[in-house]
Amino acid sequence: MTTIADVAKRAGVSPVTVSRVINSASNVNPATRDKVERAIRELHYVPNSAARSLRSKRTNAIALLVPDITNPFWTTVARGVEDAAQSGGYSILLCNTDEDPTKQLHYLDVVISRRVDGVIIAPYSADARKLKRLREREIPTVVVDRRIQGWEVDTVIGDSISGARALVKHLIDLGHQRIAVLSGPLNTSSAEDRVTGYTIALTEAGIPIDRRMIRRGEFKTSSGETLTNQLLDEGLRPTAIFATNNSIALGVVDAVDQRGLRIPQDIALVSFDDIPHLSHVFPFLTVAVQPAYEMGIKAAQLLLSRLNGEQDSQPCQIVLPTCLIVRYSCGGKPDDINLPFRKDILPEKKVPVQPLSLEERRELLRRIPGLKLPAYC
Amino acid sequence: MTTIADVAKRAGVSPVTVSRVINSASNVNPATRDKVERAIRELHYVPNSAARSLRSKRTNAIALLVPDITNPFWTTVARGVEDAAQSGGYSILLCNTDEDPTKQLHYLDVVISRRVDGVIIAPYSADARKLKRLREREIPTVVVDRRIQGWEVDTVIGDSISGARALVKHLIDLGHQRIAVLSGPLNTSSAEDRVTGYTIALTEAGIPIDRRMIRRGEFKTSSGETLTNQLLDEGLRPTAIFATNNSIALGVVDAVDQRGLRIPQDIALVSFDDIPHLSHVFPFLTVAVQPAYEMGIKAAQLLLSRLNGEQDSQPCQIVLPTCLIVRYSCGGKPDDINLPFRKDILPEKKVPVQPLSLEERRELLRRIPGLKLPAYC
DNA sequence: TTGTAAGCGTTATCAT
DNA sequence: ATGATAACGCTTACAA
User: Fold this and answer.
1) CATH number of the domain enclosing A347
2) Residue A128 placed within a domain
């Protein structure tokens, strides 16, 4: 395989000069540059990045650790990351962690072994100790979609609290009083923030919190199904369910379907995160959406700016606004529509979600004793 | 950062011995191994893979080049690839080409520069010359989803011809005679094979081919929309449309919707490739599906077996069977169902697709003069 | 502007 | 079973 020495020989210069051309150093004579570039072309020379990395201590690669690329939310985030990374000259190492501690740990070792320049991660836990390896080695890191406790690290998240609050408020406005929430893992901030938003909305409406209506599982369809079954088996008779992510929502649909119940006639359903192509063909599910693509772009841009030292040294937290998309799944629409759907019959309404105001925040902290409101909202 | 020399010193052995331990060489004294492993743990040593790669000429990485990870088909393939690669100790370099020649070329350079051990690619064109760089450098390659002309290379594809034939036959059985097909790029075998399947089904039913009913665009929603509009504007009055991929199908839905027409009452729709979560909530679209996850797994396994030299030297072509999933979108169901859907009201039927038999093949070649049937079916 | 020399951290090769 | 030595292909530091 052609090396830099071959090119140098052909161009009649030293390897260093070729290196300078490759790295677009300024101090190269244009004529020399031409010679070298011709030699590179003629020999189809492509530098060996292992060798470059070994010497330069940079890999021009970043790792992306997400729970599951198969979830359309993560797919979209990944695409954003890839686009931004690519245009900055970085490659992406893709890692699915499945929210699995062992897998995440394994991948952190891969990340360290490969000496990637930076990491974008949606960690399975808010516990900073799980990311010790990254921190110890001072690998530039951006956490996405979730907040971390115990480590001031760059973070890009959606405003889950306000989104959830808006979603539940919407249900309440439609007359629902018995609303259940199906949350994800306890130590995952996005799951918890959505429960917080739920609590806020109920409190603001003067509806007492029934702890039995708050369920926690995993961000998985199977979990949504199980939790729904438990909920309905216990005879709590919720009139609406808030699924804290799209996978859980699908599980709710399944469980409700199996019981011969109907959405929204028998039970309403809202969800955090959309199911992209579904809305396209069947504008059904009322959801709070985060700008997933932008989240990916922003995370990558933030990381790259760190790598280039363009950023001030303070870790930052970027909070992206959410939108409420009101569709059919909580009722309020005729239920005798012919198949298939036309968007003029099943219109959808997209509304930006307002974050909590300072007064609302203060008021809430007063009214709800145990409430922990993260700084971001 | 800790190096192999640090570990060696601590364990009181030479770096080579540490290397042997890392690489689980057999000829290491168990006691020595223990000492080394302890030292590794104590120092939190993780080998530098750039250095390893430079010396060993292996990167333990493979590149995955797909059109767009955002398309659920590719998402699923990617997940399969990642799972298989991970369990073989390989990392994945993710590259979205957007079916764009420039992007693909760019990524081929990245691939070469990074000296990945192998490549899994869905190339934007069947022209082998576009992959010259891979071939010249003898980078082990598996082509997925598409056939390549002019290069005998490992390939994993779905049986597009039989799938398309089954899909169109289904339409014909329901009484459709004026069926349009919206295909993808001319030089993409999956697109062309699906048109071939279409042609076969019509011919077998004795329906003459109307060239105006065959449209070609891109595998994009916008393209599906445009093509549908053109088709309908020209007054060809198709009673059914066959979209050759899921993105195109979504464009058809849009266009039909905008005209105030309904699927399937006014026009039927079938598609190649499912839209995963859609079917979950709204079992609507009749489709031919390929086992996308298995395609990813198979492609990665094939590649890894090449890398490990476990395979005979012949390039091979793996053809995965397709299934027909019959749902609502071509009619034959009541159209006065209340929202939302219950799967017992909108049942779906999944049928394995039979490949063309030898006799059928022979018969077809006789009846259709210009027909080019690829070897795989 | 260009070149020389050294070294990045590992493993292949050969020797013991 | 273990070690010494060199080399992988490049870039940094310094010199000219």
Assistant:
1) 3.40.50.2300
2) yes
Residue A35 CA, nucleotide D16 C1', distance (Å): 22
Asked whether residue B48, judged by its CB, lies under 7 Å from any atom of the DNA or RNA strand C, the reply is: yes
Residues 77-96 of A with CB under 8 A from B: 78-79, 82-83, 86, 91-96
Which positions 50-79 on chain A have a beta carbon less than 7 angstroms from any atom of strand C?
Answer: 51, 54-55
CATH number at residue B26: 1.10.260.40
Residue A139 sits in the same domain as residue A240: no
pLDDT digits (tens, 9 = 90+) for B88-102: 999 999 999 999 999
| Residues 294-313 (A) near nucleic chain D, CB < 7 A | none
Evaluate the CA torsion angle B179, B277, B72, B321 in order and state its sign. Answer: negative
Q: What is the predicted pLDDT for the residue at B336?
A: 43
Q: Can you give the pLDDT at residue B343?
A: 59
Query: What are the pLDDT digits (tens) for A214-268?
Result: 999 999 999 999 999 999 999 999 999 999 999 999 999 999 988 988 888 899 9
What is the CA B121 to C1' C8 distance in angstroms? 33
B277, B278, B330, B346: best mutation site toward chain A, by most A Cβ within 10 Å?
A: B277
Both tokens of A64, joined, read 């992306």
State residue A293 phi and psi, 5-degree precision. Answer: -60, -45
pLDDT over threshold 70, residue B49: yes
Beta strands, E only, B39-146 = 61-66, 91-96, 118-121, 141-144
What phi and psi, each to the nearest 5 degrees, are found at residue A283? -75, 85
A340 and A254 share a domain? Answer: yes
A334 pLDDT band, cuts 50/70/90, is very low
Same domain? For A229 and A356 the reply is yes
Q: Is B264 on the interface with A (CB under 8 A)?
A: yes
pTM greater than the 0.70 cutoff? yes
| Confidence check: pLDDT of B179 > 80 | yes
Give how many domains chain B has, as a whole number.
3
Q: Which of A51, A70, A277 sits opposite B76 (nearest CB)?
A: A70
- Same structural domain, B125 and B254: no
B107 and B9 in a single domain? The answer is no
* Shared domain check, B334 and B306: no
What pairs with residue A66 in β-bridges? A96
Residues A146 and A271 in one domain: no
Residue B3 approaches strand C within 7 Å at CB? yes
pLDDT digits 0-9 by tens, A149-180: 999 999 999 999 999 999 999 999 999 999 99
Helices marked H in A150-281: 160-173, 189-204, 221-233, 246-258, 276-281
The Å distance, CA of A108 to C1' of C14, is 37
- Cβ distance of B260 and A336 shorter than 8 Å: no
Alpha-carbon distance B194 to B242, whole Å? Answer: 9
Higher pLDDT, A339 or A19: A19
Residue of A nearest to B278 (CA): A278
- Whether residue B236 is found in the same domain as residue B270: yes
Tell me the residue range of the domain where A75 lies. Answer: 61-158+293-315
